[in-house]
Design goal:
By secondary structure, the chain is an all-alpha fold. It has one domain. About 80% of the residues lie in helices and about 0% in strands. It is elongated.
Length: about 45
Amino acid sequence: MSRNKKGLICIAAAAALIAAGLLMKQNADVLAKAVRVCLECIGVG
């Protein structure tokens, strides 16, 4: 399998997982966790 095909397969898999997460309405949870981690990292939270 060529390197280009492997990259396309990875991109397709990532797009499918992102779409699945959006369909299951998990984007708000991910954003909340990202904000919490970011605030802890800079020492505010």
